[in-house]
Amino acid sequence: MGAGLVGRAIAYGADIQLNPNEFRLLVGMCLTALDADKPPRYFDSREALALILGRRVPDYAPEDEDGERERDAAFKAVKVALNGLVKLGAIKRYRVGGNGRRAVYDLVLDATASQRTAEHRARKVGGRSASPAGVRSTSQLGDAQPPVGGRSQSPLGGKEKQERQEESDRLNGTTSLEPMDNFADPRRAA
Predict the structure, then answer these.
(1) What is the DSSP secondary-structure string of 23-66?
(2) Whole-prediction pTM
């Protein structure tokens, strides 16, 4: 299938600033496309694209409100990632989907052409991946970009968290580099 295309997508991602969902989607699309096609094309479903992003899409059931919200969220994540890839020129819409027809995308993967796009220039100026207003790029491993203001907000402030960790280390005796008897109580002085 698309092992050669996956290698090209990884190289493309090294040259062009992609957010995590865009990168995952691009690699997944390349994995299922055929290397031999000229141009290589991706033509699977929106559900398959959502699965590439780590989202299982429940079957459509009008009475299932939670399922509908999950479907909408998954398809929105796909749409945002696809739009970013199209704006960069990594992929090109060959055919728009709808009415039972799947969308088809040409996999371009031309870093030089992408570097000339307005989207690429906007991302370079911002210093990080551009996302639509109000949408933060996140992955299962955490935030892909620092929060607004550049500082992470934790439920416990930085100082409180550090004090709590120091107290925990002191009680557990984990700050000493000396050998320790696991059966002795570290709080009792010998």
Answers:
(1) HHHHHHHHHHS-TTSSS-EE---HHHHHHHTT-PPPPP-TT-HH
(2) 0.64
- Mutual angle of helices 3-15 and 20-32, in 10-degree steps: 160
Q: Among residues of the chain, what percentage have pLDDT more than 70?
A: 65
Contacts of 135 (CB under 8 A, 6+ apart): 80
Angle at 20 between CA 25 and CA 86, to 5 degrees: 50
Q: Are 5 and 105 in contact (CB under 8 A)?
A: no
Residue with tokens 């949408």: 135
Q: Do residues 111 and 15 touch, judged by C-beta distance below 8 A?
A: yes
pLDDT digits (tens, 9 = 90+) for 70-129: 989 999 999 999 999 999 999 999 998 888 888 899 999 999 999 999 999 998 886 554
85 exposed, middle or buried (CB, 10 Å; 0-12, 13-18, 19+)? buried
Contact 103, 97 (CB under 8 A): yes
Sorted by where each begins, the domain ranges of the chain are: 3-143, 154-190
Coil, helix or strand at residue 137: coil
